[in-house]
Amino acid sequence: MLSEYGVETSSGVFHAHSWSTKLPTDFTNLMIDNLVNSNLNKLRFCMHPSADEVMQVTYLAFKAPYEDKVHRHPHRPEVVMPLAGEALHTTYGTDGLKISQKLLSEKDSVCLSTEFGVWHSMEILTPVFLMLEIGVGPFKSDSTVFFER
Predict the structure, then answer these.
(1) Is the CB of residue 5 less than 8 Å from the CB of residue 37?
(2) Strands (DSSP E) along 4-143, which ranges?
(3) Which of 60, 63, 64, 119 has its CA 20 to 30 A from that of 35?
(4) All domains of the chain, ordered by start, with CATH?
(5) Average pLDDT of each block of 10 consecutive residues along the chain (149 residues)?
(6) How far apart are CA 22 and CA 65, in angstroms?
(7) Quick check: helix, strand or coil at residue 31?
């Protein structure tokens, strides 16, 4: 259970007991198993003990069907690295039109960096997708802004 390694701060969001929390070697499988056996479509395990931390490292697991709403982070860039499965990362212009798309795949675990302020979304293409996300905190209510037409 994920609760052995962190505290569930809200539904499907865990924060590690400390930065030095030792995770098991099969942690990615544990994340996927916890997600598949839940009624959630998204599960987060944050290595940072609280949302107030300046550095934020998060494992995110998604269960299809799942697609992010188009959003941006006005104050923080983010870097994602696929660990299992596949997803399609799309960036958009200020008009909401697609600019680019990139396949995120466990077969090509290359990091993808999204600069702050860039509109983007992600669509899960496989039954399960797991990624590692690195960003800058603290995470506040205005850290994510959703696109409105």
Answers:
(1) no
(2) 6-10, 13-16, 42-46, 55-63, 71-72, 78-84, 86-92, 98-105, 112-114, 119-124, 128-136
(3) 119
(4) 2-138 (2.60.120.10)
(5) 95 96 95 95 96 93 94 89 96 94 91 90 97 88 83
(6) 31
(7) helix
